[in-house]
Amino acid sequence: MSLSKLLKIKETFDIIYIVGVNLKSGEIETIGDKSKLVYDDLVTDLFDNIDSIYSLDKSIEGQRMPQTWRQGEVKCIVCKPSNNILVGLFYNEYRDTIESYQWSKEVNKELEAIWKK
Description:
The chain is an alpha+beta fold. It is 41% helix and 29% strand.
């Protein structure tokens, strides 16, 4: 996994906290400060440990990407830029539903493009 790729996404889209996982090796990397999220329970629910991450990956199998989760003001975009990489992007949401959906698709598209380079 490349932290530089995740850092570019963090800076470009003003993401607070990112979890990147290499599903093949089980390596988990994080960027950012999750204490800046209004709540961090969503981080724990989705990316607490490798077993929960594998369960998340299995639950999104065959789904259109990105998938999103929300807890109050905190939102997570889950992207899968390649078969063995899973990324969770956490931020405090202020957009309306349609704007948020379009923005999350833009983030996912950029992440996929960066990963293919």
